Amino acid sequence: MQTLLRTVAEMSDWKRKREGTALGVATMVKDDTLAVGIAEVSVDRATGKLKVHNVWCAIDAGIAVQPLNLAAQTEGSIVYGLGHVLREKIVIKEGRVLQSNYTDYEVARMSDVPDIEVKVVSTNNPPTGGGEDGLPVLAGAVGNAIAALTGVRLHELPFAPSG
Question: Are 123 and 60 in contact (CB under 8 A)?
Answer without folding.
Answer: yes
